[in-house]
Amino acid sequence: MLKDITLGQFFPGKTVIHRLDPRTKLLILILYIVALFLAKSYLSYALMLVFLVTVTLLGHIPFKSMTRGLKPMLIFILFTAVLNLFYTKSGRLLFEWKFIHIYSGGVRTAFFMVLRILLLICGTFLLTYTTSPIALTDALERLLNPLKKLHVPVHELAMMMCIALRFIPTLIEETDKIISAQKARGADFETGNLLRRAKALVPILVPLFVSAFRRADELATAMECRCYHGGDGRTRLKVLRYAKLDYLAFLIGLALLAAVIVLRHFGL
Amino acid sequence: MEQTPTKPIIQAENLRFTYPAAGETLALPVFENLNIEIEEGSFTAIIGPNGCGKSTLAKHFNAVLLPSGGKVWISGLDTTDEARLLDIRRQIGMVFQNPDNQIVANVVEEDVAFAPENLGVPSPEIRSRVDDALKTVGMYEYREHAPHLLSGGQKQRVAIAGVLAMQPRCIVLDEPTAMLDPRGREEVISTVSRLNRERGITVVLITHHMNEAAGADRVVVMHKGGILLDSSPREVFSQVELLRKAGLDVPQTTDLLFSLNGAGWSLPLDALTPEECAEAIAQAMQA
Fold first, then answer.
1. Domain total for chain A?
2. Which one, of B235, B188, B238, B230, lies nearest residue B209 by Cα?
3. Does B167 touch chain A (CB under 8 A)?
4. What is the chain A residue with the closest CA to B126?
5. Domain boundaries, position B194
6. C-alpha span between B281 and B287 (Å, rounded)
7. Between chain A's N and C termini, which has fewer beta carbons within 10 Å?
């Protein structure tokens, strides 16, 4: 049951989008998000949508996996839509019933808000779908490298992220085992009210934490044995290098942002 | 320092170690006045009951633990010399019991690259070291796999590859097969003995499986923080009563011969392989 959890699911492939340097993809995502928050008109949203669909097609990402990923967000999106619909009081009054007033401005804001959230989520999905987690941590480490001068522990953070990603499946497997073991001892996780069920989690969490700490201790020793001594003087197996393709992609990202700003300036 | 082939790679002299006392309990030394030398290129098995100090001793071999008294030298380097710490650790690779807890990255080849990355090896050389190490342990086809999808024996071979990528002169394995099924155990042991035979890498194998120890050149039996026996497997395992008193098993072949002797036969106890054992019994029956 816990095996179904996918965090930052990655679809391996060899398409143009996959081959881009992870740093480029990360930077383009930032440009994309900025553009998304500056977009105000139908035209600019249409532009964003075209960009998203093109990248999805180029990356051979099935649209189905996108919609599947959006499912858990559905409640959040609906909630935003309803809030915006009822609380925006501008434009013509379209509908009135007791305390409910819906204005044309509300419909417009709600529509844009939902579109914005959808585009935002799908954009980040595209990054994690086409970039392996290890490449992503590597990119983060390299991009944040200048912060080292401000004594931000960039390497340590990246290492932690890498180890966390590595241990997610191991710990999930372990949780499954503990749940089975406690069930075999007569633990009941399915009945009772919320408080009772929350209390039933204690016999799962305690052994899980104990074992996680023991693992951490052993891993630290193993890392020391393999000469780990922090980020100083460390080299990498795969060195990130910008190629022509990356500059081109980055230019396209910049063009997208510029287009949205121009459209906004002219009120389109 | 002169380098002669018989020079010990690991040398412990009058070693004493006490874990720091917790609370009111009196700290008992794990071992006192322990002396051991491991020759370069040898295959040594260390056996002993739980809590006899095997793992603690192993951790002294690459300066994870430092002696409370006495000295440990790794090819002439004192393990307390902090400036040479990396020089010591790159020579002595360590493989632990739980394969899950020693794999760092979520791609096999990235994990094998971990040690050379730490040592600051240039990228193209890391690539060749990783490929070479993975081919040596027979895991090259799995280089792009996620480690959690591999079997226990495969994970442990990845861990060995991760150590090999440091190009160590010696590998210390602390009960590497304790969590594996018989097939995984066989994979790991055959890999290790091949490394010893073909590459001349010194192997120190800590184990609970007497059959694994029987395959070594030399068996060291530890008991209560001291060395009880230290000799060839044949000589060590023929001391059946002494080993049993220390709470240890003997290989099944020796066990059979010993039981037969108890029933009035007079068989040699130093037959370790099933073939030798069968031969010994056949000869005794003819006589």
1. 1
2. B188
3. no
4. A237
5. 8-232
6. 10
7. N
